[in-house]
Amino acid sequence: MATNVPPDSPVRSGQSVSLISQVKHGERQNYNPEFWHVKFRGFSPSEGSNWIQDLRSISELCYQWLRPDLNSKEEILDQLVLEQFLICMPPEQQALVKESGVKSCKDLEKLLRDRKRHNWSIIYSQGQAHLLRHPSVGKAEA
């Protein structure tokens, strides 16, 4: 599943991120980090592939996922920490984080604090975990 690294890629050309950071507003809106995250995590070299090309491909996929030209260091660190949090947490927390759409550790902390006040259940549908908030709990607290 190795992908070709574009010739003008910052990874291939060795350009510094600061030189590449002049990005149009529309590019940020069309940016889909989840697509590139899945491609990055799913990368596997083909048998007999060129290791140097594989390294470049993985680097390019990581670059496309984390986009240092679009995201600050703090945003990139938050993406990595949130991913690790999802990996090591039980399904209930995973579903809570995924469905909430939080993008920062600060937002996740707030979500987890608020979560303690609610009663949640996990519903599995077509192999995916979904979080269900019990309506009676929310009404009683309101």
UniProtKB/TrEMBL annotation:
Domain SCAN box: 39-117
Pfam families per record: SCAN
Gene that produces this protein: Zscan5b
Cited PROSITE patterns: SCAN_BOX (PS50804)
GO MF term list: zinc ion binding
UniProt KW keywords: Metal-binding, Nucleus, Repeat, Zinc, Zinc-finger
Compartments, record wording: Nucleus
Protein name (record): Zinc finger and SCAN domain containing 5B
Source species taxonomy: Eukaryota, Metazoa, Chordata, Craniata, Vertebrata
InterPro entries in the cross-refs: SCAN-C2H2_zinc_finger, SCAN_dom, SCAN_sf
UniProt GO cellular component terms: nucleus
Signal peptide: none
Superkingdom: Eukaryota
